[in-house]
Amino acid sequence: MSERVASERIVLDASALLAIVFGEPGEERALELVERGMVSTVNLSEAAAKMNERGLDEGEAERLLGALGFDLAGFGEAEAYAAGRLRAATRAAGLSFGDRACLALALREALPVATADRAWAALDLGVAVEMIR
Length: 133
Known about the structure:
The protein is of the alpha/beta class. The protein has helices at 14-22, 27-34, 41-53, 58-66, 77-90, 97-109; strands at 10-12, 37-40, 71-73, 113-115, 129-131. It contains six helices and five strands, in the order E-H-H-E-H-H-E-H-H-E-E.
């Protein structure tokens, strides 16, 4: 694959958002990517749910995520079928529905994806994967 230019868009997984919100390892790299990032509504929901589980109320989760500056992409019929098709290729790696929604968006947009989930690095799905940690 060709080397990415600094302004190229990138799809962010929920783990990248959570690294920023909770100051987890990979936070610095995720912060570098977030302004040119695109996030599926499925992954936004996933991040908000994790934030709620960790004690942040709905309003605080919405405020923190909204301040990050990424673009939001809807999850429609085409992405639903694409995520379904990815199930067989990602099952052994343990990828969730949210993970597959993120990958479906990356495939649709022909963009790389950023995640903290190491299982993605071994996948060969036609999507460049950047590990944030």
